[in-house]
From TrEMBL:
SUPFAM superfamilies: NAD(P)-binding Rossmann-fold domains. Residues 1-25, 60-81 are annotated as: Disordered. PANTHER family: BENZIL REDUCTASE (PTHR43008), CHAIN DEHYDROGENASE, PUTATIVE (AFU_ORTHOLOGUE AFUA_4G08710)-RELATED (PTHR43008:SF4). This is Sorbose reductase sou1. One of its GO terms (molecular function) is oxidoreductase activity, acting on the CH-OH group of donors, NAD or NADP as acceptor. Coiled coil: none annotated. Belongs to the short-chain dehydrogenases/reductases (SDR) family. Residues 1-11 have a biased composition (Basic and acidic residues). InterPro entries: NAD(P)-bd_dom_sf, Sc_DH/Rdtase_CS, SDR_fam. Pfam families: adh_short_C2. Keywords: NADP, Oxidoreductase.
Length: 388
């Protein structure tokens, strides 16, 4: 039997940030006869009525996933009038439709929690885990990743493929992709369960060319009929130069790639996300250097360019939120790639120094960013935007 258990709410808040907001774990519409439903307390309704935030518990993702528990898995079509869909679900499906709108009304959030929206699925006996099959899955999604001929961009592109993306477009400077990229593509093509999917594509282009990037975005949209994920990873780090005499041309060059190029990349993808109306996730690769300064390194151009990226993410997030386009920045610490190898391979003492600055006592590996980029790209983070 379903039951309402107000007292259980605190135990279900672990993964969400606000302690005063009761959070319900998916699936809301449980299909296990013995599972009880946890509903929020009356105080919760009071808190949302008074303008307190209602958190990700009621995000479209949870509702979307909860509908996957409906019989016959008919919910994704949202066919409220489909005769196969049980009458009981009619109200729920109407709610789901409204929740997919950019600005669902307060009533929809309140109605969502009414007891008559709670039911058991008479056709199943065991619940199916959704976390990796749904929330973290990028099945059929299309992505654009800049700077993905190598390094962090390529690693992230592969992670998106492994998470189920239909196609990941890698944008970088060389006319032809590197041998490393070709090998990764061969590997991606062989990843099991991805027959005919998981394509890694390469397009030569510079992120500093705004028109060119927009055209690339448009061509991907025309070909794939959607564009869901963007990772703006292209970046450069120029050699040490005293800030008091830093040459204008080099300062502009670094900002042109690391700041302007990130904006042009986000625009290229964001325009297509807006065009197809599916929402999307844009991930701007910043750096810890956007928030802290690397002492003993004269990196004024790099540090300034990365700081701008963090604020760009917050600014774009606020503008694009109504279109369900999320924009977050991701700031790695020291990771061993070609960019850092330029220092580490010639100045051996730097490895120990950089490692000592990290709580883990070491520098990172590119593959250690796979999880976070997949989380940000996927529906596992649908209530996360403007975050660093
Ligand atoms: N490696 C680190 O420790 C570290 C730390 C923090 C942030 N980052 C950031 O992560 C991102 C990836 O860095 P990485 O370590 O993989 O470096 P990398 O040098 O290995 O890769 C950067 C890629 O960007 C490409 N690129 C440069 N200019 C471009 C342009 N105009 N248009 C298109 N592509 C261009 C390069 O060709 C290269 O393939 C960068 O934005 C970097 O600032 C790296």
């Amino acid at each position: 039997m379903n039951s309402i258990d107000h007292g259980d709410i605190s135990r279900h808040t672990g993964t969400h940030s606000s302690p005063e907001v009761p959070v319900q774990r998916a699936p809301i519409l449980t299909n296990h006869p013995s599972r009880s439903i946890t509903l929020p307390s009356p105080e919760f309704f009071g808190s949302i009525a008074s303008g307190a935030h209602y958190a990700g518990a009621l995000s479209p993702t949870h509702v979307e996933h909860s509908t996957s528990h409906l019989p016959h898995k008919r919910a994704p079509s949202l066919g409220a009038d489909d005769p196969i869909v049980h009458e009981t679900y009619r109200g729920v499906l109407e709610d789901v439709k409204e929740l997919f709108c950019a600005r669902p009304s307060l009533e929809i959030f309140q109605r969502r929690w009414r007891k008559d929206a709670v039911f058991e699925d008479p056709l199943s006996t065991a619940p199916t885990p959704t976390l990796f099959a749904h929330e973290f899955s990028l099945a059929d999604r299309v992505a654009l990743v800049s700077g993905a001929n190598r390094g962090l961009g390529l690693e992230m592109a592969l992670a998106l493929v492994e998470a189920g993306a239909r196609a990941v477009y890698c944008i970088d400077l060389p006319k032809e992709p590197s041998e490393e990229w070709q090998k990764v593509r061969e590997y991606a093509a062989k990843v099991s369960g991805k027959e005919g999917q998981g394509r890694l594509e390469y397009i030569s282009g510079s992120v500093t060319d705004q028109d060119g990037m927009w055209k690339i975005g448009e061509s991907i949209g025309n070909k794939e009929g959607r564009l869901d994920v963007c990772v703006a990873a292209a970046g450069i780090l120029k050699s040490h130069t005293d800030c008091l005499t830093y040459p204008a041309a080099q300062f502009r060059q670094v900002l042109d790639v690391n700041t302007n190029g990130v904006l042009f990349t986000a625009q290229a993808a964001g325009q297509q996300m807006a065009r197809f109306g599916n929402g999307g996730s844009i991930i701007l690769i910043g750096s810890m250097s956007g928030s802290i300064t690397n002492k003993d390194h004269a990196w004024v151009s790099y540090n300034s360019s990365k700081s701008a990226v963090l604020q760009m993410a917050r600014s774009m997030a606020c503008e694009l939120g109504p279109q369900r386009i999320r924009v977050n920045s991701l700031s790695p610490g020291h990771i061993y790639t070609n960019m850092t190898a330029a220092y580490l391979d010639s100045q051996a003492h730097l490895l120990e120094k950089w490692a000592s600055l990290n709580p883990l006592g070491r520098i990172g590996r590119p593959d250690e960013l796979r999880g976070v980029v997949t989380w940000l790209a996927s529906d596992a983070s649908t209530f996360c935007t403007g975050s660093e």
